[in-house]
Amino acid sequence: VQLVESGGGMVHPGESLTLSCIASGFKFTDYPMSWVRQAPGRGPEWVSTIKPSGNIYYSDSVKGRFTISKDITKNTLSLYMNGLKPEDTALYYCARGDYRGNFVSQIFERNRGQGTQVTVSS
Fold first, then answer.
1. Phi, psi torsion values for 10, nearest 5 degrees
2. Tens of pLDDT, residue by residue, the chain (122 residues)
3. Side-chain half-sphere of 11: how many Cα atoms within 13 Å?
4. Whole-number Å distance between alpha carbons of 38 and 88
5. Could you tell me which residues come within 8 angstroms of residue 104 by beta carbon, excluding any fewer than 6 positions away?
6. How far, in whole angstroms, is CA 72 from its chain's centroid?
7. Which residues of 66-82 are buried (b: 16+ CB within 10 A; e: fewer)?
């Protein structure tokens, strides 16, 4: 499993960013794909999941502001983040799998990319 994230950066509150993740080493269309973030000093937090069926799920903290999508022709997962807040500051990981509910760290660690940093500050 290889996942390479990009698109992070430093923005002001209210601004937008789009994160991308290029996947390889597995059949992209067979797996749910997720975004998970980790703020300094805190554990991983599930953000969003898109299932192979196309069903989409968001955490309450980002619902209405973030949009997850995938391009199966390019094996790419994206996260459009709008209306960013300082509390969105975190390292954002692309991960193979569905991390809603019971979050199993060992599975996440084996199925994630290196992360891309998002910092929201005035």
1. -110, 130
2. 999 999 999 999 999 999 999 999 999 999 999 999 999 999 999 999 999 999 999 999 999 999 999 999 999 999 999 999 999 999 999 999 999 987 888 899 999 999 999 999 99
3. 20
4. 9
5. none
6. 16
7. bebebeeeebbbbbebe
